[in-house]
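Title: Comparing notes on inverse folding

I've been comparing how different people in this forum approach sequence design from structure. To keep things fair, I'm posting one structure and asking everyone to reply with a full sequence. Here's the target:
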């Protein structure tokens, strides 16, 4: 598959759509043109199950007529003039919104930075097949692994152009490669499964297929013969794979849109201590090769690195132009395109690592529950109440003792944030990254 996307074609479509909206009567407009290519291979038991190739284009348009706005998207080849006219007609009958509008012109990015988001490696179906087969073979070589849940590998390239009626035109492309393996241990009703995976901007940065497959097999075997726990109140350790979910809940709670609506449990906490003093959280849109890296936000503005939590203190909301206007604050470049609209969001959100290794963290707290997998989404962003199904391992005297399952962990996120300690095993591969986290005083609902 081609490793290049022609930005000029996307740019022409986005500009054409903006011009058509203005001719149709819009006072202002912005348009996004996107395209993507992907290739993936899935194998099971040493044989290729599927090989998929796909390509797709999309267009989205926001129009503003006075204080009214409307958005429209399509992934079909449509008449651009007709699409623009339909969006303007929708805007004329929509409710007035005094905060809607494009970003202020003086905030538009003047020069697009280069952020190392494109890997020139020519990825082929043969390469993907080889990686997937090697990962599966390594997983099945682990003693105790009985079956393969399959392995897969994929590559993708996407391009995006944003054009606005007040003069901004920006474009960028990104590549992403990944592979994974699912392993099964045990037989009959006594079976456990687990997985491992890797995903990177550059093919050469990926872990070896053998490492991923072996890890998947070892994870599955370690989960064999899980026990249930009695109800108790203990420290809970979040494996990095699930610790990122706590960062996701935090990001939702500091979204400018949630703050403006008054629907966040942190709505009155700006400038106050909301985490333990050792916790620091940053959001960096310019991280080279980062999964969430972008040269500009969904409105065409620069997005400075934010220290959202500094020594436990909440320093900022996530703000796009609309939420900033409603709150009477300055936007900070956190507009994320969601279809044809924008919402406040994060880029590369990272909870900084602490001083203790993972092993030292477990030893420091002695006994508790190490969570490696979570079920459900029982986190209430309005009240902060938190309750989720989980499985993992019981920790005794700082050592992993045995696997556990069919348990529920519960607390309130205000208390969880204030009683959090971070280990030093931060994995920065993903757009939301956190090390192993210990949260004291959580309730475990078991037998």
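Reply #1:
Here's my take.
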């Amino acid at each position: 598959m081609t490793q290049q996307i022609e930005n000029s074609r996307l740019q022409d479509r986005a500009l054409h759509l903006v011009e058509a909206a203005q001719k149709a009567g819009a006072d202002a407009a912005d348009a996004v043109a996107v395209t993507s290519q992907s290739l993936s291979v899935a194998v099971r038991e040493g044989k290729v199950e599927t090989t998929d190739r796909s390509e797709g284009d999309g267009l989205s348009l926001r129009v503003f007529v006075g204080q009214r706005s409307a958005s429209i998207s399509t992934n079909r080849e449509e008449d651009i003039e007709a699409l623009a006219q339909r969006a303007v007609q929708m805007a004329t009958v929509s409710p007035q919104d005094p905060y809607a509008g494009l970003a202020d012109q003086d905030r538009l990015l003047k020069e697009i930075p280069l952020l190392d988001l494109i890997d020139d490696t020519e990825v082929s179906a043969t390469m993907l097949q080889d990686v997937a087969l090697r990962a599966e073979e390594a997983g099945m070589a682990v003693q105790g692994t009985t079956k393969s849940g399959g392995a897969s590998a994929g590559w993708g390239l996407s391009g995006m152009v944003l054009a606005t009626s007040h003069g901004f035109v920006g474009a960028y492309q990104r590549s992403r490669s990944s592979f994974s393996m699912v392993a099964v241990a045990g037989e009959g009703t006594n079976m456990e499964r687990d997985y491992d995976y890797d995903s990177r901007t550059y093919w050469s940065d990926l872990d070896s297929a053998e490492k991923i497959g072996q890890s998947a097999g070892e994870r599955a075997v370690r989960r064999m013969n899980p026990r249930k726990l009695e109800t108790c109140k203990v420290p809970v350790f979040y494996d990095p794979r699930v610790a990122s979910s706590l960062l996701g809940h935090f990001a939702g709670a500091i979204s400018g849109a949630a703050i403006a609506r008054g629907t966040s449990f942190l709505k009155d906490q700006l400038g106050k201590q909301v985490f333990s003093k050792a916790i620091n959280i940053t959001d960096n849109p310019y991280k080279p090769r980062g999964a969430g890296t972008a040269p500009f936000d969904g409105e065409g503005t620069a997005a400075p690195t934010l220290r959202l939590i500094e020594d436990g203190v909440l320093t900022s909301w996530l703000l796009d132009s609309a939420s900033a206007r409603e709150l009477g604050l300055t936007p900070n470049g956190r507009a994320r395109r969601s279809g044809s609209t924008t919402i406040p969001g994060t880029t590369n959100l990272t909870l900084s690592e602490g001083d203790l290794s993972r092993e030292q963290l477990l030893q420091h707290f002695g006994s508790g529950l190490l969570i490696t997998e979570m079920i459900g989404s029982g986190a209430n962003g309005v009240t902060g109440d938190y309750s989720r199904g989980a499985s993992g391992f019981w920790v005794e005297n700082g050592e992993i003792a045995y696997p556990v399952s069919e348990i529920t962990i519960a607390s309130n996120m205000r208390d969880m944030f204030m009683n959090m300690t971070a280990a030093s095993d931060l994995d920065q591969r993903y757009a939301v990254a956190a090390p192993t986290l210990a949260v004291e005083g959580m309730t475990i609902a078991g037998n």
